[in-house]
Each structure stands twice: as C-alpha cells, then as structure tokens.
Write a structure and sequence with these properties.
By secondary structure, this protein is an alpha/beta fold. It is 33% helix and 19% strand.
Length: 177
C-alpha cells in the first residue's frame, strides 16, 4: 500500500478506528493485532481494546491471527476480521454474533462468502496448531460442509482493500465485487 493501511480513512474514520468501534459494539473482548508500524497505530486504539503485537509480521496473516487468538486466552468462539475490510456494515457483525452455535459462521452476499468469520473453539485450536507456511483458509475449507452461512445485504464483506487502486475504488464508491 505504501503507507500504514490502518491509518487510511473510510468516511470520517481511520480503518482501525472504524473497525474497533464496530467490533466493540458487538464483541467483548476485542483484540487487535499490530505488526508493521505498531508504534504509530497503537496510540490510536481505544484503551478498552486488547492489543497484541505480532513479533514476526513478515510471516503473514496466519501469524497475526495466531497472535490474536493466543492473546484472547480460551474463548468459546471468536469473530475475526482482517483490516482489509474497512467498509463492513455493523449489521453484518451483529448478525454473525447472533449466529447459533456452530463450527464456523460466515456471511454470504449474493452467493459469495466473505469476512468477518466466526469460529468455534474447535476451529481456534486447529488454527493455533497450524505450522509456519500454512494458511487459515485451509482449516476453513476443511470444514466447508459445516459452515453456517448468514445471508447479508452487505457487499462490503467482499471488498478487500490491498492496493492503492482498491483504496481509490473504495473511497470513490466504485469497489469491484
């Protein structure tokens, strides 16, 4: 991206500010994993937010997810959301949090699944056991038959902001689905 993605703005909030606000409305505790530029982002976090620092962010998204899961202790279930999805509607988070007990709950918009993802203790343990180089999606895919889909009207579950072009499309309201 060329700059700290957490500090990019969507609407009148930074990505990190918006997501911590939305998650804190529906989840407790909320943990945010910092990596690159933690010293810039950390001071912007709500003091009620549990903060974990990924000691090796170069290892990728799985290492950040594992860092966050470890910081939470032993929760019964966890909702996880990459920072790359800043436009998620709060109603999507509320619907997922209201999902019945299941291994995995995932939002689906017009037949396509996206983020955030709600995982059970069983899946948390599987993710924590993954070795370096593995991917969280492999665990999720291994449970495809067990996924509880939550139908949403939120196209933002599919809008992943990874590049300057993605960010420009988001800001201009022309994100590609």
């Amino acid at each position: 991206m060329g700059r700290a993605k957490a500090l990019l703005t969507y609407g009148n909030e930074t990505f990190i500010g918006r997501l911590q606000r939305i998650l804190a409305e529906h989840c407790s505790p909320v943990a945010i994993v910092l990596g690159h530029q933690a010293e810039l982002i950390g001071p912007m976090l709500d003091r009620r937010i549990l903060t974990a620092v990924n000691p090796d962010p170069e290892r990728g998204m799985l290492s950040s997810l594992q860092t966050g899961l470890k910081a939470l202790g032993e929760p019964g279930r966890v909702l996880f959301l990459p920072l790359d999805y800043p436009a998620i509607d709060p109603s999507t988070v509320a619907l997922l949090c209201a999902a019945p007990p299941c291994l995995i709950a995932m939002p689906r918009f017009e037949g396509r699944r996206g983020h955030p993802v709600l995982i059970s203790r069983t899946v948390i343990e599987e993710l924590l056991a993954l070795p370096h180089g593995a991917a969280a999606r492999d665990v999720i895919r291994s449970h495809d038959a067990d996924i509880h889909y939550v139908e949403v009207t939120d196209p933002a579950i599919l809008v992943d902001v990874d590049t300057p072009a993605d960010y420009e499309a988001l800001v201009n309201g022309s994100s590609r689905l």
